[in-house]
Amino acid sequence: MKRKLLGVTLVALVTLIGVVPLRAASGPVLILEIEGVINPLTTRYLERGLRMAQQQDAELVVITLDTPGGLETAMREMVQLLLDAAVPTAVYVTPGGARATSAGLFILMAADVAAMAPATQVGAAHPVPLGAEIDEITSAKATSDAAALVRGIAVARGRNAEWAESAVRENVSVTSEEALEINVIDLIARDLNDLLRQLQGRSVGDITLEPLGRTVEETPMNVGERFFHVITEPNIAYLLLSLGTLLLLAEVADPGLSIAGIGSAVAYIVAFLALGNLPVNWAGIALLAVSVILFAVALLTDTEAIVSLAALIPFVMGSLLLFVPFEPISPSLPMVRVSPWLIGLMAAAIFGFSLVVLRAILVASRRPPQSGAQRLVGWTGTALTDLAPTGQVRVDRQDWSAISDGGRIPSGSVIRVTGVTGVRLEVALDETAQADGEA
User: Fold this and answer.
1) Helix axis angle, 234-253 relative to 259-275, nearest 10°?
2) In terms of DSSP bridges, do strands 29-35 and 60-66 run parallel, antiparallel, or are they unpaired?
3) For residue 40, with 0-12 CB atoms within 10 Å meaning exposed, 13-18 middle and 19 or more buried, which class applies?
4) Mean pLDDT throughout 98-127?
5) What's the helix, strand, coil split of the chain in %, to 5?
6) In principle, which of 24, 267, 315, 371 could form an S-S bond with 291, CB 3.0–4.6 Å?
7) Which long-range contacts (CB under 8 A, 24 or more apart) does 336-343 make?
8) Which pTM was predicted?
C-alpha cells in the first residue's frame, strides 16, 4: 500500500513539474528610454538592452516611448527584436502628451504588453510622399506593405488588427483611453510604479510577471549612443553642415591646416554620419556643394558681393530640399525637415561672414608684414660698410647686418631689401637710385 502511495505521489510530482513553468527570474526590471526619431542607433540601443536583460535574467524590460516615427529599416529591426525577445517586454508611451505615431505604432504593437499614459496618442502611419507626387500604384504598394506588417504584428500579439490596419490605410490616431477600449493596448498607467503594479501577476505566455519588489534599473543610452542620437535630429545635422561650410571658407581665406580646417573636416564627418540615418535628397547635397564653391570663388576674386549673392540661391534651395526625397517614403517615417528660420539664419550668417569677416582676413593676409624684419622687404636704405658680401646697412633709421645677393656693394650705396634670412637682411644694389645719381 505504501509503495502504491509513493508511486502515485511521484507521478503527481512529475506531472506538476511538466505543467508549472520552471522559469523563476531573479533579476531586475530594466528600463530603456527611447525618445525622438527611430534610427539605427535606437535599434542598437534596444538590442543592447535586451541582451543585457537576458544576461541578468531580468524579470521584465520596460521601454518608455515617445516618437514621431523614423526609418523603416530601423523600425523593422526593432519589431523583430521585440517579437523574438527572450525576456518579457512592455512598451509604455509616456509621459502625458507623448505619442507613438508612424514607426512608434509598430513598436508599441510588437511588445508583449502595450501600455500608455493618460493624454497620449497612437496611430497615424499612412505613407506620405515628401516633396513630390507619386503614382497610385506605387502609393498602394507602400500602403499595402505597411498594412500587412502591422496586421501581422497585431495578430501575433492578440490585438485589434482591423484598427491597426486602418491606422496605416486611413492615417487614423486614437487617444490612450480609446486605444484601451478598442483593444489596441493592454492597459493605461499613470506612471512607472502604476504600470508595475498592474503588471503584477499578469501572464505573458507561460510566464507570470512579478515585477513588484524587484530592483528597477534604468539603462540609458551610453555617451556614444546619445551623441549620435542627438546629431540625427535634422536641424542639428543641418547646423553641422553649415558650420563645416563656414569653417571651410575660413580655411580658404587663410590657408594652412589651421583650427578652421580641422574643425571643418570634423563638422562635415559628423554631419554625414547623421545624414546616413536620415532620408536625404542628394540633389540637395549637390546644391549645397555648388554654393560652397561659389562662396569660395567669391572670396578669392574681386566679384565678392555679386557671386556671394548668387551662391545664396543654391544654398537656400539645397537646404530646403535636403530632407525631401523625391520618392514614396515609409509609413514609419515622420515629416523630416529643417526649420525655415534656421535656413534663413545660416544663409545670412554665411553671406555676412564671407563678405565681411573672411574678406578682411584675406586682404590682411595679402598685405606685407607690419612688424619685424619682414616688413622691410622692398624698402631702400644705405650701405654703411662695403658688402663683400656681408656688412652693415641702415634701413628705416635702424642699423642691420646684411648680405649682398648680387655681388659687392660699396659703402654709401643705396640698397633695396629683397628678403630676410634669420636676423640678417638680404639686399641688392638699387639700380633705380644708381641711374638717377648718374643722370
Assistant:
1) 150
2) parallel
3) middle
4) 86
5) 50, 20, 30
6) 315
7) 336/37, 336/130, 336/234, 336/278, 336/279, 337/234, 338/234, 338/235, 338/238, 339/235, 342/235, 342/238, 342/239, 343/238, 343/316, 343/319
8) 0.64
Q: And the C-alpha cell for 142?
A: 507602400
**Cell numbers found for residue 299:** 572670396
As a whole number, the mean pLDDT across the chain is: 78
What average pLDDT does the segment 196-200 reach?
91
Q: How many CB atoms neighbour CB 380 within 10 A?
A: 16
Q: Taking every pair of C-alpha atoms in the chain, what is the biggest distance, in angstroms?
A: 147
Residue 88 and residue 207 in contact, taking contact as beta carbons nearer than 8 Å: yes
Amino acid 205 reads G
Cell numbers given for 39: 534610427
How far apart (Å, rounded) are the C-alpha atoms in residues 403 and 428? 9
Average pLDDT over residues 311-319: 81
Cis peptide before 21 (omega within 30 of 0): no
Whether a cis peptide bond, with omega within 30° of 0, leads into 328 is: no
* H helix or E strand, kind and range, residue 304: helix 304-321
Main-chain dihedrals φ then ψ at residue 394, nearest 5 degrees: -120, 125
- What number of other Cβ atoms are within 10 A of residue 345's Cβ? 13
Which pLDDT does position 228 carry in this prediction? 77
**Residue 16 binned pLDDT confidence (cut-offs 50, 70, 90):** very low
Is 32 a residue whose pLDDT tops 90? yes
| 76 CB burial (10 A radius; 0-12, 13-18, 19+) | middle
Residue 88 vs residue 396, higher pLDDT: 88
d(CA 396, CA 382): 10
Single-letter amino acid, residue 124: A
Residue 399 Cα distances to 393, 402, 409, 415, angstroms: 6, 9, 16, 13
* Nearest one of 114, 134, 79, 80 to 184, comparing CA atoms: 114
Neighbours of 261 (CB within 10 A): 17
**Using an 8 Å Cβ cutoff, are 105 and 82 in contact?**
no
- Copy the grid coordinates of residue 172: 487614423
pLDDT band of residue 18 (cuts 50, 70, 90) is very low
**pLDDT for residue 439:** 44
CB count, 10 Å around CB of 367?
8
